[in-house]
């Protein structure tokens, strides 16, 4: 008990501990680094002091080393890259799926419009034919009712000519064109309205011809619908090309597709 000890851990402490008879000291939770443990002994009888020191180093834990931190950073960057790449793939997949759904929806809507237009046109044509047949039947019935054996053949022929003139009139009449035009604009996104807006000089017959050309009908089919000759259709096509300013190599279908 004649010797007292004081200690100081250089690098962790800046002052000596009070003198004590204990010849040991416990220090915990030291961070990694270099230290010097200093001990000073005091002889209480003679008053002499002596000092000694021990240098030591505490290494960091394996997960605190620079190379481990570098690995953590690299792994973290890889994880972030994988997560971002995965998110991009998911977003791309969602966008592609929605795009396909939109395309399919548009295709179905167009198909419904086309079928509705075909039904409407069929109904119009059927109604028109019925009207013509009813009118012809009524006129022929009138001829039978009013004719007698004493009537001259010339008079009967005149009445038959009137029926034929009526048939030609119905064939050349612009029947329900407004309704057909509305159905066409529904199916082809107001193409005819856009043509009228861009080319005010187009006549009603030009617009009809545009609609038939857009439906890719042949010259013979167009001639039948317009009740004109095929040569007239070709002439009208040539004049229409001039009005629209189409170059020689461009087809009507390509031109209409560029507008719609």
Q: How do the strands line up in the largest sheet?
A: 1-2-3
The CA-CA distance between the termini, in Å, is 109 Å
What Rg do the Cα atoms give? Answer: 51 Å
In percent, how much strand structure appears in the residues?
5-15%
Report the order of strands and helices. Answer: EEEHHHHHHHH
DSSP summary: helix tally: 8
**What characteristic shape results from the CA principal axes?**
rod-shaped
Low-confidence stretches: none
Q: What is the residue-mean pLDDT, rounded to a whole number?
A: 81
Helix content: 55-70%
Protein architecture, described:
The chain is 62% helix and 11% strand. With 260 residues, the chain is mainly alpha-helical. It has a 3-stranded antiparallel sheet, with no helix packed on it. Helix 1 packs antiparallel against helix 2 (153-172) and helix 6 (219-226) crosses helix 7. It is rod-shaped, with a radius of gyration of 51 Å. The model has no long low-confidence stretch (mean pLDDT 81).
Keywords for this entry:
three-stranded antiparallel beta sheet; 8 helices; 3 strands; rod-shaped
What are the SSEs and their pairings?
Elements: E1 3-10, E2 33-43, E3 49-58, H1 66-146, H2 153-172, H3 177-187, H4 191-198, H5 204-214, H6 219-226, H7 230-244, H8 252-259
Antiparallel strand pairs: 1-2, 2-3
Helix pairs in contact: 1-2, 1-3, 6-7
Brief sketch in words of this structure:
With 260 residues, this protein is mainly α. The protein has helices at residues 66-146, 153-172, 177-187, 191-198, 204-214, 219-226, 230-244, 252-259, and strands at residues 3-10, 33-43, 49-58.
């Amino acid at each position: 008990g004649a010797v007292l000890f004081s200690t100081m851990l250089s690098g962790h402490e800046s002052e000596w501990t009070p003198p004590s008879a204990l010849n040991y000291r416990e220090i915990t939770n030291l961070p990694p680094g270099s230290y010097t443990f200093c001990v000073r002994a005091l002889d209480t009888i003679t008053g002499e002091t002596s000092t000694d020191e021990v240098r030591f180093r505490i290494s960091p834990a394996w997960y605190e080393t620079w190379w481990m931190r570098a690995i953590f950073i690299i792994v973290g960057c890889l994880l972030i890259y994988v997560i971002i790449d995965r998110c991009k793939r998911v977003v791309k997949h969602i966008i592609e799926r929605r795009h396909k759904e939109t395309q399919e929806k548009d295709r179905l809507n167009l198909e419904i419009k086309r079928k509705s237009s075909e039904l409407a046109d069929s109904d119009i044509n059927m109604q028109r034919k019925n009207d013509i047949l009813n009118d012809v039947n009524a006129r022929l019935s009138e001829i039978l009712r009013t004719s007698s054996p004493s009537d001259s053949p010339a008079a009967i022929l005149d009445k038959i000519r009137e029926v034929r003139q009526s048939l030609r009139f119905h064939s050349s009449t612009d029947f329900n064109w407004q309704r057909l035009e509305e159905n066409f604009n529904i199916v082809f996104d107001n193409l005819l309205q856009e043509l009228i807006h861009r080319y005010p000089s187009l006549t009603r017959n030009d617009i009809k011809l545009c609609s038939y050309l857009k439906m890719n009908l042949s010259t013979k089919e167009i001639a039948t619908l317009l009740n004109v000759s095929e040569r007239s259709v070709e002439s009208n096509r040539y004049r229409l090309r001039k009005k629209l300013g189409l170059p020689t190599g461009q087809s009507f279908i390509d031109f209409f597709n560029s507008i719609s």
